[in-house]
Design goal:
This protein is mostly beta strands. The chain has two domains: 27-206, no CATH class; 214-301, Immunoglobulin-like (Sandwich). The chain has strands spanning 27-33, 41-47, 53-55, 58-67, 74-83, 88-93, 98-104, 112-120, 125-141, 144-153, 165-167, 171-172, 178-179, 183-189, 192-196, 228-231, 237-241, 251-256, 262-268, 272-276, 282-289, 294-301. The protein is globular and about 60 Å long.
């Protein structure tokens, strides 16, 4: 039987907390999915790339979902999420014009958190489930300490318990809410690793998810598959490699931060270049423009 993995948070706070459910700045979640059957594909959720949105008097953060199930990175949908002061996470669904809890990091061991919003992809159908908090664990690695609420719920799916958790300041391990297909691989907030499946789910360590970010299209971009944007092992050098593109004409290369501010503006005449990003931190958009087209990708600089 194929394993399914879930990621989420609870509702119904039992005490007040100063911690928040979702990040309030740049964040990236990377994972893998198969929509219920092969072939599989990569998935990304990006927070901080879109403006905050005011809905019915509450300010929501926008989380954008991308995947490459078609062979190219495609924007799938947007999510609107917020945290309240009691540690509860919420999502606003535009179709129903209402918000629903997605988790609660103030819940205690043994608490049942009711009606937590989950998603069943195929069809992206939303369902509420009750979750029980099994343990609350503080985990440290490489100078980074996180707090996770491990949970379980009565599921018709085979679920790996070690990935069923909510994490303060991270949200769920697979983005804005629980998903009942796929696998979480990685999450970082402002370039600081919060979860890394490659090191047994620990926080800290080097950022590596940028390789998944290659070629996320903006509204006018095309033919991104041959563009590679990645960090060197030191994290201080950003490589822009377009040797896989058919377009090798002189290009203008720009780097924008999450607010849209231009931080680097230079020219690329060959197939690749190196950019010094030692003074930068967070999520950035790289845009490459030639007389033939425009290409873009995103990267998290730690």
């Amino acid at each position: 039987m194929r394993a399914y993995f879930i990621y989420f948070f609870a509702c119904c706070a039992s005490f007040s907390t100063s911690a928040q459910f979702y990040p309030n700045s740049n964040a990236i979640w990377c994972g893998w999915d198969d929509d219920g059957g092969p072939p599989g594909f990569d998935v990304q959720f990006l927070l901080g790339t879109g403006p905050d949105t005011l809905l019915q008097g509450n300010l929501y953060l926008k989380v954008q979902e991308f995947n490459n199930s078609t062979g190219n990175w495609v924007r799938i949908r947007d999510y609107y999420v917020r945290s309240d002061i009691t540690g509860v996470g919420y999502m606003y669904l535009l179709d129903s014009a209402a918000e629903y809890p997605t988790g609660n990091i103030s819940a205690l061991v043994g608490d049942t958190v009711h009606d937590v919003l989950c998603i069943f992809p195929p069809g992206a159908t939303y369902y509420p489930y009750d979750f029980v908090v099994d343990s609350v664990v503080s985990i440290s690695n490489s100078g980074v300490t996180v707090t996770r609420h491990f949970v379980h719920f009565d599921s018709p799916f085979a679920v790996a318990p070690n990935v069923l958790f909510w994490q303060a300041g991270m949200g769920t391990s697979f983005g804005p809410l629980i998903r009942l297909h796929g696998r979480p691989d990685y999450c970082s907030v402002d370039g600081v690793v919060q979860y890394n499946l490659g090191i047994n789910g620990l926080p800290g360590g080097p950022a590596w998810c940028a390789s998944f970010s290659v070629g996320l299209p903006d509204t006018n971009s095309s033919q991104n598959d041959g563009l590679r944007i990645y960090l060197g092992s030191s994290g201080s050098t950003l490589f822009v490699d377009r040797s896989g593109l058919n377009d090798q004409s002189p290009a203008r290369v720009q780097l924008f931060d999450a607010t849209g501010r231009l931080v680097i503006d230079t020219t690329l005449k060959g197939p690749k270049m190196e950019l010094d990003v030692s003074s930068l931190k967070g999520m950035y958009t790289v845009r490459l423009m030639t007389g033939k087209g425009r290409y873009s990708g995103r990267v998290v600089v730690q």
